[in-house]
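Q: Structure for this?
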Amino acid sequence: MERYFQEEIECADRETLTAIQNERLVSQVRHVWDNVPYYRKKMEEKGVTCEDIKSIYDLHKLPFLSKADLREAYPYGLLGAPLSDCVRIHSTSGTTGKRVVAFYTQEDIDLWEECCARALTAAGGTKEDVCQVSYGFGLFTGGAGLNGGYHKLGCLTVPISSGNTDRQIMFIMDLKATILCCTPSYAAYLGERMKELGYGPDDIPLKAGIFGAEAWSEEMRRDIEKTLGIKAFDIYGLTELSGPGVAFECSARAGMHINEDHFIAEIINPETEEILPDGERGELVFTSLDKKGFPLLRYRTRDICTLTREKCSCGRTHLRMSKPMGRSDDMLIIRGVNVFPSQIETVLLNLGYPANYQIIVDRVNNTDTFEVKVEMTPEMFTDNLGEVEGRQRQISDGLKSMLGIKAKVSLVAPKTIARSEGKAVRVIDNRKI
Ligand code: DLL
């Protein structure tokens, strides 16, 4: 039987949800107008005042916010509450330019943790569970958000953070952890290491995993589930909107329910900014309805996905987003063709290779070069050149039929591609250097 953390709101009918969204949007726009001069100026430039926003049907009148705005407004320009009311910051893991700093009031943290508790309950979690939180703690939102959510539910949490894989495994086995939270690439690595240590899926006490923070394919889900003997659930979120728990998978695992009482989602064409109908693929845009410390309106996430309002078998009524296939800024354009790392992952896993790969792109004589390094498993490893070439050809053919372009495939020895403890780095694009 499906269980909910906040059934009344998670299963509310559309009329009730719309009424909540209308009321919260009007009050949020007023809050931003009164407290965030940076955004008020953007509204004035677009010729819109807070009086113009009377319901969600007026949302399209508001200007978009982009990552560039967040950088320009760094650090306090988008702060929505007095600093004395804020109790914490988190920050993005951006490698270039200024980091984004998000502020939280205590109420913001409570709402965020409730969203995480909804996700945990949807994955079958109860207060009887032992949850190992192997997302990073600190400025990254993964560790703190999920740990807080589990406390709302009364679970025993193991706030181990990322890294030190053998210690992670010792705690899973000794404390009989039942739920694991980390990035999917780290879950895959934990599985690989547990196998090496001789643990099969039946020896491992885990029953579920809540994995997110990076794009991952259905094939990778299948692989992780098989090695760890668990059911794997996707969770989505971003620092700018609080962190994990903006959307999460339920037992149907057919898209992630967006917490619509807190966020309004739109899909737009990233080039023209035109709003697209449900089912069409485009960039996800979010408006936060009740966050006060860092209240973003129409924030362009750069994540590419689709939305559906079709009825879900779990009973939740909140709309669902598809797995993001990647970020528009992660998308590679190679010889004019759009390539997402997740497409390469799908080909490799379908052919029985592990998700340990690296994509190297360069430009030589004005032409893009495209190489995919793929790690062999110890069972595949051989010095028979004919066999290696055959495998390389097979992968190259698979990539050609998925992407329409040819890649140079190099098979490399087991354990030669660095493992990540957080978000995996799959692409080296030398054209940008
Ligand atoms: O990654 C928050 C998070 C922590 C989500 C733990 C889930 C679990 P940021 O570091 O700000 O926050 O990165 C946000 O990560 O815009 C997406 O591009 C990507 N992302 C997050 N979740 C998923 C997911 C956290 N389930 C950025 N699938 C987002 C694909 C994801 N991409």
